[in-house]
Amino acid sequence: MKKVRIFLYIALAAVVVGGILFVNQGKEEKVKERHWMGAWMTAMQEPFDDGESHEGFKDQTVRMVVKPHVDGDQVRIRLSNVFSDEVLKVDKVSIGITKKGAETKEDPVSVSFDGKKDVRIPAGERTYSDSIPIKISKDEALTVSLYFKGESGPATWHPRSMQTTYSADGDAAGKAGKDGFKSIEKGWYWLDGVDVRTDKKVKGSIVVLGSSIDNGNDSKVDSNHRWTDYLSERINEKADGKWTVLNAGISANQLLDSPEEKGEKAPDRLKRDVFEQTGVKGVIVHQGINDIRHHPETDAVTIIDEMKAMIKEAHKNGVEIYGVTISPYNDSGKYTAEGDRTRRKVNAWMRNSGAFDGVIDFDKVLRNPDDPSRLQPKYNSGDGLHPNEAGYRKMAETVKLKMFDH
Fold this sequence. Notes:
Elements: E1 15-17, E2 20-22, H1 25-32, E3 34-41, H2 52-55, E4 60-66, E5 74-80, E6 88-90, E7 92-100, E8 103-104, E9 109-110, E10 119-121, E11 126-128, E12 142-148, E13 157-159, E14 165-169, E15 182-184, E16 187-189, E17 191-199, E18 204-209, H3 212-215, H4 227-238, E19 243-247, H5 266-275, E20 280-285, H6 289-294, H7 300-316, E21 320-324, H8 337-353, E22 358-360, H9 362-366, E23 367-368, E24 371-375, H10 389-398
Helix pairs in contact: 4-10, 7-8
Keywords: Membrane, Transmembrane, Transmembrane helix
Region (Disordered): 370-391
Transmembrane segments: 6-24
């Protein structure tokens, strides 16, 4: 599909005198002070073998909620058909400011693609919408609805979104109310990005390339209490909103392998999930825990070599890369002493090698000082692997914001 062209429509107050055109300089300068920035994203994967992602939708509206954490006066959305062999046809798309659940504050705004209300996305591709004149604040969420008149086919999607997803029979894309909508399997279907036209004080986007801890597993559904959400709030409060944080976590994702229903391995996701994001400035790599848990025989050198290759690729693409130490996982059900030794060796390399542009030490703040193989009880969700919301908040507080100012 031809890439969408973005036009900035500037309101001009103009008078022609003696053949000379005078414009409202103030409004023109205001537009020049804004630019497009990646504000929200999710990492996509193949449909499962059953459920809504496999069955798809027909004469139904899918409604999803996302929270960008940034102020802006226009938005554009990105739809993905990357994991499909067929053309995707979406008959209607709408967007509105979220009120509660499936409700929007006002009637949703129609979204166009190259000036058309429907869109066809070729197999294996993604596309942006036209710019949408809708204002959003950093405290608001967006509700995006997709209507399929015919069969959608299996979905390119992000499962376990920690956010309720809704569907309604027929065309409900333009409705603000919740009537007719019911909750379905949690996930973001085809929607993989939102850009916001925001102030140029927002310098860039930081992508978190991780797994279930980054996905926010075991946080409260619909709360936006992932550690990346807490980091966004902290940036808005402490760093005057200089950066946006884009979450590319996939539950059970790995560094070395691509198991079924766990997404492509992290290195294979760099181009799509990091380098192609609007305004990307850096990537936080939080990987290794699932390789160690599921394959305790994996040695530290293998993990380190893969991380070195990712560092090289990031720098080749002009993107800074930050490493995250691997937190403890004893009591998680797949703990081994061998795996824990590997974890500690990888962490020691991260802290001491200087290979990354910066290091975020989650292991140090989450581990139990009396038993470093375990999470501190106050940060343990109960499964020995995932932090609770207090742990997620502590993780966000650990990040040194000045690290991104290099």
